[in-house]
Amino acid sequence: MRTLTRLAVAAVLITGLQAPGTAFAAGNPLEKTNGFYVDPGSNPAVWVRDHAGDPRAASIKSAIASKPGARWFGNWSGDIRTSVDAFTYAADVADKLPILVAYNVPGRDCGGHSGGGAGSPEAYRTWISNFAAGIGGKPAVVIIEPDALAQLDCLPAADRQTRLDLLRYAATQFAEKAPNTWAYMDGGNATWIPAATMAQRLDAVGVRSIRGFTINVSNFHTTADSAAYGRSVTAALGHPAQFVIDTSRNGKGSNGEWCNPAGRKLGTPTQVGGGADLLVWAKVPGDSDGDCGIGKGIPAGTFSPDLATRLITGS
Questions:
Q1: Residue 61 counted as an annotated binding residue
Q2: Domain limits at 277?
Q3: Which of 27, 128, 131, 216 could form an S-S bond across to 180 if both were Cys, CB 3.0 to 4.6 Å?
């Protein structure tokens, strides 16, 4: 339990000992915790508790619900500072490292299956500032806005700079307000955006001010292919940014489809290293990508025991 970190940060805020305009010294969240946090409120965990008699429950509990992974926060999360604080506090009490995904940029998913987001740039700035403040001094890992940079070209030309400005603001908020957080800006996947182009975009949104970037969020490319892409992006950046790979559903690689494709499988559970800074289950296995593929009729973000079982068996 890391209450000393929480109390120390609170004391600084109360007494005003921090010099104006300066950020706290960066801390290593791995050194302040003992393993990754298993979210008891994840969709798979809730489904297992509510369907204890279902013949699929045991395998879903063992293979998915008991594994550490990310919780996604967006416009469904209520008061974002309160929600983030409660989640990270629960992890802090357990002495575990939580993984969070910030997913609320205006024009999210370009109006696709996961469309939505904050209603205006001003609303987003308030939201992401409160997100970072909700973490405060507690240890955390945060993935910032999956797909937001990779989908830049789908926006009207006049809106692209606005998105870049918002993502840069997000990076700044975590750098300034969450000193024991490793924050990673999303960088698409191995076959989406050329590495040099993605490096330019990451540089434009201030990736140098945070830990690094993420690859393969909610996608299926192998860890090896993703790591190779990550190294290419890092080389193009010209500075030692770290990267994280989402391995939640990449156990059999990609078949070229991205929306609930058949025949995919769970990948390596969340861990340190493995060809990247971290391997994490960013996408919650069993949560639908949208009304598509083998998840036809299942809205994005909705848990399906059938989708989960197929990821367990690789069918």
A1: no
A2: 27-313
A3: 27
109 included as an active-site residue = yes
The string of pLDDT tens digits covering residues 125-169 is 999 999 999 999 999 999 999 999 999 999 999 999 999 999 999
C-beta of residue 199 within 8 angstroms of C-beta of residue 160: no
Q: Residue 10 domain-assigned?
A: no
In tens, the pLDDT along 262-273 reads 999 999 999 999
Is 258 marked within a binding site? yes
- Give catalytic status of residue 147 as yes or no: yes
In a domain, 48, yes or no: yes
The answer as to whether 22 is a domain residue is no
The total domain count for the chain is: 1
Within a domain: residue 12?
A: no
Catalytic option among 39, 85, 92, 109: 109
- How far apart are alpha carbons 208 and 115 in whole angstroms? 28
Q: Is 47 annotated as a binding residue?
A: no
Query: Active site includes 289?
Result: yes
Supply the mean pLDDT for the chain: 92
CATH code where residue 259 lies: 3.20.20.40
Does the annotation flag 219 for ligand binding? Answer: yes
